[in-house]
Amino acid sequence: xxxxxxxxEKDFGGxxxxxxxxxxxxxxxxxxxxxxxxxxxxxVFNLITGLIKPDKGHIHFRGNHLVGLxxxxxxxxxxxxxxxxxxLFPKLTAMENMxxxxxxxxxxxxxxxxxxxxxxxxxxxxxxxxxxxLELVGIPEKHNFLAENLSFGQQKLLEIARALATESPLxxxxxPVGGVNPKLRDKIRNILIKIKEQGRTLLIIEHDMNFVMKIxxxxxxxxxxxxxxxxxxxxxxxxxxxxxxxxxGNKK
Amino acid sequence: MKRKLNYPRIIxxxxxxxxxxxxxxxxxxxxxxxxxIVIGSIQALTGExxxxxxxxxxxxxxxxxxxNKNGGVNGKKIKIIHEDENCIPTKAVSAAQxxxxxxxxxxxxxxxxxxxxxxVAPVAEQNKVIMFTPIxxxxxxxxxxxxxxxxxxxxxxxxxxxxxxxxxxxxARTASTLYINLDNGISYSxxxxxxxxxxxxxxxxxxxxxxxxxxxxxxxxxxxENNPDVIYLAGxxxxxxxxxxxxxxxKTQIIAPTTLQEADLFDIAGDSANGIYYSYESFDPNSKxxxxxxxxxxxxxKYGRESEVFAANAYDAVMLISKALEKCEENTDCIxxxxxxxxxxxxxxxITTFDKDGEVLxxxxxxxxxxxxxxxxxx
Amino acid sequence: xxxxxxIINGLIAGAIYAxxxxxxxLIFNIIKFMDLSPGAIFVTAAFSAYAFNVLxxxxxxxxxxxxxxxxxxxxxxxxLIVYQPLIKRKSDSFTLLLASFGVxxxxxxxxxxxFGAEVRTFGLPITKGYELxxxxxxxxxxxxIVTSIVVFIGLQLFMKKxxxxxxxxxxxxxxxxxSGIGINVKKITNITFIISAALAAIAGIxxxxxxxxxxxxxxxxxxxxxxxxVIGGIGNxxxxxxxxxxxxxxxxIGIWYLPSGYKDAIAFVxxxxxxxxxxxxIFGVKTREETSG
Amino acid sequence: xxxxxxxxxxxxxxxxxxLAASLNLAMGNTGLLNVGHVAFYAIGAYxxxxxxxxxxxxxxxxxxxxxxxxxxxxxxxxxxxxxLRGDYLAIATLGLAVVVESILRNWTSLTRGPLGLPGIPKPxxxxxxxxxxxxxxxxxxxxxxxxxxxYYITKSPFGRVLKAIREDELAAASLGKNTTKYKTQALVISxxxxxxxxxxYAHYINFIDPTTFSVLESILIISMxxxxxxxxxxxxxxxxxxxxxxxxxxxxxxxxxxAIGALRQILYALLLVIILIKRPQGxxxxxxxxxxxxx
Lengths: 252, 379, 293, 295
Known about the structure:
- By secondary structure, chain B is an alpha/beta fold.
- Chain B has 12 helices and 15 strands.
- Chain B has 2 domains: about 190 residues, Rossmann fold, CATH 3.40.50.2300; about 140 residues, Response regulator (Rossmann fold).
- In chain B, α4 links the parallel β3 and β4.
- In chain C, α2 crosses α9.
- Chain C has one domain.
């Protein structure tokens, strides 16, 4: 078990965005979080990554309590996320965008003075490692391009490559194929599966149903902030409660 | 990846080349033709002290025009080059370096602002160039070097004369000072306090005002609270203080050093500026002496307004230097010694004598403002 | 007796800062950048009023109107040539701040070129101020304070009641939404510049009457105006006027105790304290809540 | 000897290069809109001058003390001001520059206020005092070292984080960067070099007073990196050269003397506005890389 969320709750001015939400993520598996718009999916991501604090509930990640930790402390524990709206650094090159997630210890100012050789050496190692990830996502030739000069698709791939570059075991992907053409969607799916095979655990928010069904080992359905169903994709597909949630059936 | 011809970088380099070429062209144009004596002048032509800088420039131009009209010095015309320093020492030093090294001038008139004079003095001294300022009053200039002269009486004698006048003539026993927060204001105020307390008087408060300030009300209020017998108002741009004092109903007798007499005093302060006693170098714009009235006419015809003391000082400075040039051509050591030897020169700005530090000793008189006129009062 | 005079001194200085602050925050409200050019408009208006009245000998009221038109025309010109191209290119507000400083230097440079460095004055007769309830205040000083109060009330009513005022506030809140519901953004921006320039011009002329005019006085005045609008509440134009009065008072009371050399420093220390602890200012309310209320 | 005039200009350019390059580290690289850079310049100058005049500490220790004190002042003001953003940081630092200048002007017991500090000794080494030519060499060494260090910093991982903070501080924070610490370090390093420039200026002109360190000086340095190009050391150097040389040719043109001052101010401001409108990334701006890389 990598991540365990127990009776999580978050109230935004009277509206319960997340209400008594419980789920677990298995090691080395792809789990997707689905649900109609406003079901609280991104809020759950924000709660896990510490951007916002929950009113109630606990989040355990490999034995650590995440609630109350600052975002950059959670990131250092090995949990990284991508953003719905791509948060790359526009005027930095693709390589620089990736190196930024890796070189935390190299970036101290005192290292610059006391051990410049160590920095140059580790920088090269980082660069090689990042090239591998760029090759994995298929855009190695763009490493020197400014992020803002990449196409939308290439930026999506770079965002994934950057998440990989953190070497963190658990990656949270917020709509990795949102607004992407079908050819690229399949390409991203293969990449994500390859990443899982390399030992990573993925938690994905996505709307595209056939993408979800093809890629997920387990699907969790969220509606009005609570988990209404979870299990393998086939079981979820014809679960009555899930259809009601999506089709807006009889609201209690 | 081949670097494309980068259009903006070319503009950058072109701008730099243009700048350098224009400086070099400037140099060539500037070469000194044999029959001319070049004199440099560094004045504050912009910024808050621009008014005084331009006054000095007018005095210099008037004198140079006159000398050139009757044949220049030993047949050589004087060419004056004005540079602006805007009261910023770095600019003054750049101007001095240009005047000394490019225009090859041996004499620099100015600078106007004391901070600039302090910065230029070492440069002039090092290059054995005469620096003659008709206006900077910073006391430290006295020890700035052998080639450094000034024909403006520094703060000390003015304040001593006014302190005595206040204590003995006006029987004032308590006083307050309101001075401009610049070197001249500070030295006027300190010297006045030293002398007044030596005579047995008591100083109630000392208030400073910043250069360029227009609102003196709160400082005046502090002084009004203490109700001194006399207020010593020291520093240029003080007309508004007098106006606001009268507006605040302050009837205390105001006394001042030479900075009071500015052409626009009555335009700004109107009748409220009447009845003020102040010390002045013996330059009396409407004195009957031939040399002064002749100068005043020429000044008025050329500039349409009465000359002030700094313009008169500048005029004298040029005249003194032209006499020295007549004797020594451009040998600055000879000019230096000549200037030191000047005794009782009948200058427009008063009878001038130089002491061993290049400071000027001029007799001071007490004047009074009466129905919008600057009137002689006593010696 | 001294204390009431101190308050009046503060109000007189505060009235000047208040007028300039209102001119400053009007522009900030619409185009969200700190525009230093009202300082130059302030000086231009004072000098043109001086030129029309004293040099050309026109009646003071005509000179006043002509000076305001000159100031407004200059402000519109600046908006057209300098600010609109920058806004079109979506340059950040700091670039606009720097451009407005460049404009300030150019305008004051030209004034120096035309009028020279002499200090000018309208030459009004100097009379002892009226003596009432323990303090002394002159006619022009009264007009100054009254004008700033009138402008304060006027702006309050204008922004709340008139159609134009509401449109301005809508634009201040969210330009896209405003243009969405049919507000002609270009027209409103120009009108804002006109009102802002007029206010700066009035401030300049009144100061010209009260003290005297020189080409240097604009820079410190606009910095104080900026401080006032931050303290009052940058999103809220009438509040800027109150900010101005506060600075005037605190400065004058401050130098009663501290050496008067620290006058400007006092205003900027207040600015820094507000920026750190209460950037919204005293009355500043997030413009979103204000309009959606 | 004409070259003395050029040497003087080159020395000024050298000092302004250090100021522009150091400001570029904070403003161009990290996006800190610091309009109070002149305050660090002033502290460096006054520290070095006062140490030399009162305790006759030689320049070689004075300039370091100047840099360190300026850096400490930067650390002091960083904590409260660095949480401000954009324009608010700009006017807060502008306010700071005014406050520092008025302290210099009014704390007469320490700084002699407007009387300034005359007679600051020129640096000396083994009996040889640095004068014009030799001073130029000293300034060149200092400015080259400063540019190399700042270039090295901007190219290092540390510099990369600064650029990330400039681009999107929130995103940088979510990647685990303690942005306040990095911004403070950027400001402190930038202040250190500005302090050294102040000391170099004081020991060259041998006289300093509050008027030299007015807010307008800050705006001049900012214009240098805007004209030269934000976020590039080469840009800062070009900007410094152009804006220092710009007013010089005016001296040689036959303009009526009363107009010289006004024209100089108009010309300099006009160039700034034109560059802002026509070429926001400045003549040597780093953003030009964008065109090279974009296929």
